[in-house]
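Before relying on records like the one below, remember that each one covers exactly one chain. Contacts with other chains, cofactors or solvent are not represented anywhere in the record.
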Amino acid sequence: MSSTNKKGAGLILSLLTAVAGAVGLAFCIVNAGTDSFRKIGTSPIVIGCAVIAILALVLHAYVEARYQANKTNYLFVDEVQMCPQFELAINSLYAKEKYDIYLTGSNAFLLSADLATLFTGRYIEIHVFPFSFSEYCRYYEETKDIDQLFEDYTIKGGLAGSYAYKTEKDRINYIKEVYETIVTRDLVQKYALPDTLVLQRLSEFLMDNVSNLTSPNKVSQLLTANNTQTNHVTIGKYIKYLCNAFVFYDVKRYDIRGRKYLESSEKFYLCDTGIRYAILGSRNMDYGRMYENMVCIQLLRRGYDVYVGKLYQKEIDFVVQKGDEKIYIQVSDNITASDTFERECRPLLQIRDAYPKMILARTRHPKYSYEGIDIYDVADWLLQE
């Protein structure tokens, strides 16, 4: 679209928005007190349309009144989904080519599919993850003990808003509130879910089974056996909702020998380990699986496509790709025992190609190599930029 056409479109949209608001107000003023107004003027639909148009007009006017010529004008709108029909004002402002616009909002209400519909390709989506371990260390820069920081980060996680609270109780309550807002409010509202029980039980099950292969059919059977009646269709939909809201990330399987992707089962990783501790506490806490979760999120943060590797009957924790780059990764807690070390090395040694192979574990030692496999302390690896 040419600059002239964009400006013309922006002017038209502004006028339409203004006219809609004016018509809504005029209708109310002119017909107030009449029988027709009593019949339809108080209709929720009529009132809602008038209010929406007025809100969009107010947002547009507010921004335009603060424009400064001959300067770069940045527009930041937080929790943008709280303004109904915000896209009317934003599209109009965008078409004027005067603003650098940034919108933030709830994961559940600003999904990629929704953005594509609202802005028809005229946007760049920036996925903001919780704090990485490196960012956590910078926040607590007065603490020099990396080992202690790593242990704390595994429990506290990366939801930086919780760091302001001085007691563990208050910090956990904050994380619970963030989690429950997404799961029991935002998702329920967006998808008009009949109740929250199945969604809550499903989310807790996935938290408790991070890094385990699973499927909707398996989950529905287990939940039903524990007196939460559901079916695999509902579970499949609810898993999709949780992943769309970035509460969980689904990682599919990749057959290394056959070089194909498998559809049968997949793994799910939680967006932040701090949520797992806040909701489930130390119940069934497996640090090896928590480290695997942290590594998965860090790989996504670094821009890799992440898969679970399958080689014959063995599993590689992660096969990651970015362009021509490919890495095979195993994650473990403690590999000091010889049988554990051999178990982690064996699948990697069976891979015949020349791509890098590594083991990430809590070694507390500098990087070293074994039979071509690079072995890192997981905390040191997470600190790499």
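Confidence is low (pLDDT under 50) at residues 1-21.
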